C-alpha cells in the first residue's frame, strides 16, 4: 500500500513516479493501492492499480497541492485494507504512519522525493540545517527503511549515521520521450528561423527558481545568440515571470501546463537545450525526460541533477554560467546522441525492480522477526 501527499490533480514529478511505479507493481503481479488527497472521496481501479482519494485541504499558494490531514480517516483506511507493506511518499504530515505500521507488524518504507535540508535552507533561515536534521532523524526512526533516488538525496540521512538508506533511481518512459518526436511545425510555432529554442519545463514556484531560465535567455541573447524560451508549466510565479519577461523585452512564450504528454514530449524533442535550475531537486524527472527526447540540459550544480545527467548536460551556479552552459551545449555536435544515451540508463523497469526488491527483503525480515528466527 502506498500513501502520498503534496500531489496535484494534473501534473508533477511525484505524480509521474507514483503512476509509473504503481503500473510496474501491477504488471509484476502485485495488487498496489495508492491513497492520495483530493477534493472529494473516490475509489477507482486504474492503470497503476487501485487509487483511493480521501478529502484533503489545498495548501495555500502552492499551485494545487493537497494534503491528508484527517489521521483518523487515514488510519481507518489502513486498518481496513490491511497492507503487507507500507510505502510513504511524505516525510512530514504522514510521518506518523511509520509508527502505525510498526504497531501492526507491517514493514514500512519512506521514499524521499524532496530535500528537507534544501527546502529549509531556502525558506527556513539560519536554523534550516538543524531543523532538517531533527526531522530527518525522526523519519528514520519512524520507518524501517529510507529510500532515496540519488546519492545527493541520501546524504542528508547518511550524515546522521542513519542505517538502512537504500538508493533506487527513478526512471523515464523511453517510448513516450524520444528524439523521434521532433516536430518542425512545432518549432516554427515557437521560434523563428535561426533561433535557438530553449525550454523550461516545471512548476513555476520559488523552489524551482524559474527566474534563472529567464536570466539564462538574457545572457545567451546578450552574447549574440538569437534564442527564444518556451516555459511549459504553471504555478504561482507565472504572473511575475510574465511581467519580468515583458519588462526586459525577452522572447519568452508561456505555454502553461501541457495536459497532453505527447505534446510535452514533442516540445522537449524539438528544443535545442532544456533548463532545470531548481537547486534542491533530488532527482529531476523533467530533466531526464528532456534527455530521453535527445535534448541536453543545463542544471543547478547545487542539486542532485549533475549525478543524473552525467556528461549529457552541464551544471551551472550563476546567471552568467547558465548562459555560458547553454552556448556550450549548442556548440556540441553530438549533444542529442549523448543525451539519449544517458537517459537509456534509467528505464522505469529498473526502478520498479529496485523498489520491489526492497519490499521483498523487508517483508522477509518482518516474517523472520515475527517467528523469532531473525
UniProtKB/TrEMBL annotation:
Pfam families: Glyco_trans_4_4 (PF13579), Glycos_transf_1 (PF00534). GO terms for biological process: carbohydrate derivative biosynthetic process. Residues 12-171 form the Glycosyltransferase subfamily 4-like N-terminal domain. Coiled coil: none annotated. Keywords: Glycosyltransferase, Transferase. InterPro entries: Glyco_trans_1 (IPR001296), Glyco_trans_4-like_N (IPR028098), Glycosyltransferase_grp1 (IPR050194). Residues 194-344 form the Glycosyl transferase family domain. One of its GO terms (molecular function) is glycosyltransferase activity. This is GDP-mannose-dependent alpha-(1-6)-phosphatidylinositol dimannoside mannosyltransferase. It comes from Actinoplanes auranticolor.
Amino acid at each position: 500500500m502506498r500513501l502520498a501527499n503534496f500531489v496535484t490533480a494534473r501534473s508533477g514529478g511525484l505524480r509521474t513516479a507514483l503512476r509509473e511505479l504503481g503500473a510496474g507493481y501491477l504488471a509484476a503481479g502485485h495488487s498496489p493501492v495508492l491513497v492520495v488527497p483530493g477534493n472529494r472521496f473516490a475509489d477507482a481501479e486504474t492503470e497503476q492499480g487501485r487509487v483511493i482519494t480521501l478529502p484533503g485541504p489545498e495548501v495555500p499558494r502552492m499551485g494545487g497541492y493537497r494534503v491528508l490531514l484527517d489521521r483518523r480517516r487515514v488510519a481507518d483506511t489502513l486498518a481496513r485494507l490491511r497492507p503487507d507493506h507500507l510505502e510513504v511518499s511524505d516525510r512530514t504530515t504522514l510521518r506518523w504512519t511509520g509508527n502505525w505500521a510498526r504497531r501492526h507488524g507491517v514493514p514500512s518504507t519512506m521514499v524521499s522525493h524532496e530535500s528537507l535540508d534544501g527546502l529549509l535552507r531556502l525558506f527556513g533561515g539560519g536554523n534550516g540545517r538543524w531543523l532538517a536534521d531533527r526531522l530527518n532523524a525522526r523519519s528514520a526512526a519512524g520507518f524501517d527503511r529510507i529510500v532515496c533516488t540519488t546519492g545527493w538525496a541520501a546524504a542528508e540521512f547518511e550524515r546522521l549515521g542513519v542505517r538502512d538508506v537504500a538508493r533506487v533511481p527513478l526512471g523515464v518512459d523511453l517510448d513516450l520521450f524520444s528524439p523521434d518526436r521532433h516536430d518542425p511545425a512545432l518549432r516554427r510555432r515557437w521560434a523563428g528561423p535561426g533561433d535557438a529554442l530553449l525550454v523550461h519545463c516545471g512548476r513555476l514556484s520559488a523552489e524551482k527558481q524559474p527566474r534563472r531560465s529567464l536570466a539564462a535567455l538574457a545572457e545567451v541573447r546578450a552574447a549574440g545568440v538569437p534564442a527564444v524560451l518556451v516555459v511549459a508549466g504553471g504555478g504561482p510565479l507565472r504572473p511575475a515571470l510574465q511581467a519580468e519577461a515583458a519588462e526586459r523585452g525577452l522572447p519568452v512564450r508561456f505555454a502553461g501546463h501541457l495536459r497532453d504528454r505527447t505534446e510535452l514530449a514533442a516540445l522537449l524533442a524539438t528544443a535545442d537545450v532544456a533548463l532545470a535550475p531548481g537547486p534542491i531537486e533530488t532527482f529531476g524527472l523533467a530533466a531526464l525526460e528532456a534527455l530521453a527526447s535527445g535534448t541536453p540540459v543545463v542544471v543547478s550544480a547545487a542539486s542532485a541533477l549533475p549525478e543524473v545527467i552525467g556528461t549529457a548536460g552541464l551544471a551551472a551556479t550563476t546567471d552568467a554560467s547558465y548562459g555560458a552552459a547553454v552556448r556550450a551545449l549548442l556548440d556540441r555536435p553530438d549533444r542529442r546522441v549523448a543525451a539519449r544515451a544517458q537517459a537509456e540508463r534509467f528505464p522505469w523497469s529498473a526502478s520498479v525492480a529496485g523498489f520491489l526488491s526492497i519490499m521483498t527483503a523487508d517483508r522477509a525480515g518482518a516474517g523472520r522477526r515475527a517467528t523469532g528466527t531473525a
